[in-house]
Design goal:
2 copies of one chain form a homodimer. The first copy, chain A, is an alpha/beta fold. The first copy, chain A, folds into 2 domains: 142 residues, Roll (Urease, subunit C, domain 1); 290 residues, TIM Barrel. Chain A is built from 16 helices and 19 strands. In chain A, the strands form 3 sheets. In chain A, strands 3, 4, 5, 6, 7, 16, 17, 18 and 19 form a 9-stranded mixed beta sheet that branches. An 8-stranded parallel beta sheet of chain A has the order 8-9-10-11-12-13-14-15. A two-stranded antiparallel sheet of chain A has the order 1-2. In chain A, strand 17 and strand 18 form a beta hairpin. Chain A is globular and about 70 Å long. At the A-B interface, helix 3, helix 10, helix 12, helix 15 and helix 16 of A face helix 3, helix 10, helix 12, helix 15 and helix 16 of B.
Chain lengths: 464, 464
């Protein structure tokens, strides 16, 4: 038996003494990570050497120095970290998992050609619940193997994506798509809110790893009435409301022509901005837009690699962060990125903003780590569950194998941002479950998923 | 015995018949890659499925369809590629290998603080032949493990770097540094040309994998006389002349103030630009500069991740390529990148230029693959040795394991650019030698090098 208080782990203490001392009693840990270097606080770069991390019932129940452990610690399972780095799992704040099927299908094309001649036709022809299920499983595997333990996903047939994420053991916010056009699974646009309501009802409280939400595609594909009804539904259900916003200059021009407002101004005028609204992209913002986002507590997600590859532009991240807006990092879908690797997304984000501002001090590594961990969790309303290594939070953490040429030397956690990549993750815990160990993927039968996606990819090719 | 003509491999043909038919006789291959998907031409994206590649005496001696091989092909060693991708090894056109020691030492700082308070003092204190040897070995391991088979390196104590690259079996252009300040190994600047001449003399013709060259640091650290003497030495020896050029706006301003010319104009006026001059960075160019580079046949190397991280700016790559200037891709050193992964460099380069131009068609994947392969080899004067898969060239090639979530589906080689990373390389051949197989690094004792670099890193830390 172990008795654990924050930061310490004792063997064989008297239970009544513990109670008197205010020490919490917990059963023997399910899992103990030993001889770890813990990235306790990404923001200040603090690393704790020679440490342990104890997990019970899916939660972190102890963090402390190896010296405070008994010589022969007891646990259901012990993982020898051997001096490698243990850090919080990464939080991908925006993706369309099922779009892994369209990875690299139509690169380097003008935006409208890409959308109208390739992505939309392929979606119309191929997206069904089965496709979403298998391709979301592929996305889940890619994310887990890259150290992502939480994803905010947004697509159609989202119940199939939700099923895939739950089977993978990936923590997720799964958002059902809403759009004023015939969409996969919603052939009749008038039903889009009803389908979304059914999705929320079906998934609320169903699985502790999954939070259902809504994804209104954008102000240029959803009318004001649809957006307001969707937001009302989200408010009623206490759910997050995601929306693509201010992604391209064309969108700004169209919004001004049609509504005489910027996209952010439009949403604000419709009463849609609050702390449960997550605005994705926000590339083209005015000073007023930044102020409105800050005042309403709305969240922002930036997807730099997608914005770069599509030539959309560069989001005013420094201005948003300086104003106190919470910003998460997202990979976007594989049609425009083309991978789901948050390590590379951190590096791209930092480098892009340095070169755009001609200022190497812009967006230091600590800010990127925060965006991909703690602040990302806050954007998704999950900060009490994930995003840092602390007793009481769920055990979402990853082990980074540091003894590799490209991570040597390893002076500080900035090396994770500028030289790390998803493949450096050796072991992943989500909610205390070991879903990958020493690069062996354990969450589900990966070969089966790869085969199923290969079969679907043949259909994509046949239609080209 | 095998008798091989371009593209075909026959068993047991009569040698006189072969001679009559103009078929070249070669001994049994040393190595045969079977059941491969060959990336024959990165520029047109052409992939040849179900193919073999035969290697003898370090050269590619046969490429063809598996159907043309005998049922039981003979070779000293056969590698089953199992449908994975075989492509040319990548060419890193600019690096400072030994600076792996300073990876992540001082990120996110203003340029002058970074240089004057961190990098220069650390170099002054720590750079000696032993440091350059071990840290260049680390760089060689990182590059090989990331699919790079040729590097153009530039540093001081370059003989120690040359020794490291030769031991690693890495193809290299090793350039001895020249600078008008006391430098590692050259405490008396007046000796800088003499030291460089000794380096050229010592290494010319010594090892078929290594081409010695000169690296004049920059026009702001070398006077006109030094640059001219260095270029004269390079011309005499038939060597490449590398120089950092037009990297920052400050450099342009300084050049104009001091010489009334742009850096490119200055070099041209001094008679330093020709087809054996390799201008590294070229971020800030005028139209006249581009024309001068084109007219003289000078080469350019772009290092986008370094230029981004240091906030230097964005090179006019589209203009250079449109003018017909040959442009290679370089990682630069680890103090400013912070890794040596050319896959990620390709992605960063493509994405950066798309977002800077707001044009997703800018720098398509095929151009990046060309810059990192064939055109890179041309920049280094090595196009008759490496950079593509063709009979007669040296066998520098890598196997990419495609059956991974982040590379699935794999519709075309663009996926290498936008989703590939160094860690996807499973096996590497350089000059026909297998230096890594199935991620097992075979070139030298990697653990020893990691230990030696760790020892040096402790000295770096102690001095901070």
């Amino acid at each position: 038996m172990y008795y654990i208080c924050p930061g310490l782990l004792f063997a064989n203490l008297d239970i009544q003494l513990c109670s008197l001392l205010g020490i919490t009693f917990v059963p023997k840990p399910d899992l103990l990570l030993i001889n770890a270097t813990l990235l306790v606080n990404p923001v200040d770069g603090c690393m704790q050497e020679d440490a342990y991390l104890a997990v019970a019932d899916g939660a972190i129940v102890g963090i402390g120095a190896m010296a405070d452990l008994p010589a022969q610690p007891e646990a259901e399972k012990i993982i020898e970290v051997a001096g490698n780095l243990v850090m919080p799992g990464l939080v991908n704040c925006h993706s369309h998992g099922a779009m892994t099927l369209f990875r690299g299908l139509a690169d380097d094309l003008p935006l409208m050609t890409w959308l109208n001649e390739h992505i939309f036709p392929a979606e119309a022809r191929l997206v069904d619940a089965e496709m979403v299920y298998w391709c979301s499983k592929l996305a889940a595997a890619e994310m887990i193997m890259g150290g992502t333990t939480t994803v905010a996903d947004a697509y159609f047939y989202e119940h199939a994506a939700a099923k895939a994420f739950c089977e993978a053991g990936l923590r997720s916010v799964a958002a059902q798509g809403i759009i004023d056009f015939p969409a996969p699974g919603v052939p009749e646009p008038k039903q889009n809110i009803a389908v979304a309501a059914d999705f929320l009802a079906a998934w609320q409280g169903k699985n502790s790893l999954l939070t259902p939400a809504l994804f209104c595609h954008s102000p240029y594909t959803c009318g004001p009435d649809t957006m307001q009804r969707a937001k009302a539904l989200a408010r009623e259900a206490g759910s997050l409301f995601f929306i693509h916003l201010a992604e391209t200059r064309d969108e700004i021009a169209q919004s001004k022509a049609q509504h005489r407002k910027t996209p952010v101004g439009l949403l604000h005028g419709l009463g849609l901005l609050d702390e449960n609204t997550v605005c994705v992209h926000c590339v083209w913002l005015t000073e007023d837009d930044v102020r409105l986002l800050q005042e309403t507590g709305a969240k922002v997600v930036t997807c730099p690699e997608s914005n770069m590859k599509l030539g959309s532009g560069i989001a005013p991240l420094s201005e948003l962060l300086a104003a106190g807006v919470q910003v998460g990092l997202g990979t976007d879908g594989c049609a425009s990125n083309n991978d789901l690797d948050l390590f590379q997304e951190m590096a791209s984000c930092a480098r892009l903003h340095k070169v755009a501002s001609r200022e190497p001090t812009c967006l230091p590594a600590s800010v990127l780590l925060d965006m991909a961990m703690g602040m990302g969790a806050e954007v998704l309303g999950l900060a009490r569950q994930t995003g840092c290594l602390a007793v009481g939070l769920r055990a979402d953490c990853v082990i980074i194998e540091r003894r590799k040429p490209h991570l040597s030397p390893f002076y500080n956690p900035g090396t994770l941002v500028y030289a790390g990549r998803g493949s450096d993750v050796s072991t992943v815990l989500i909610d205390g479950r070991v879903v990958m160990q020493d690069r062996r993927f354990l969450a589900f039968d990966l070969a089966e998923t790869l085969d199923e996606v290969r079969r679907l990819a043949k259909r994509v090719r046949a239609g080209e």
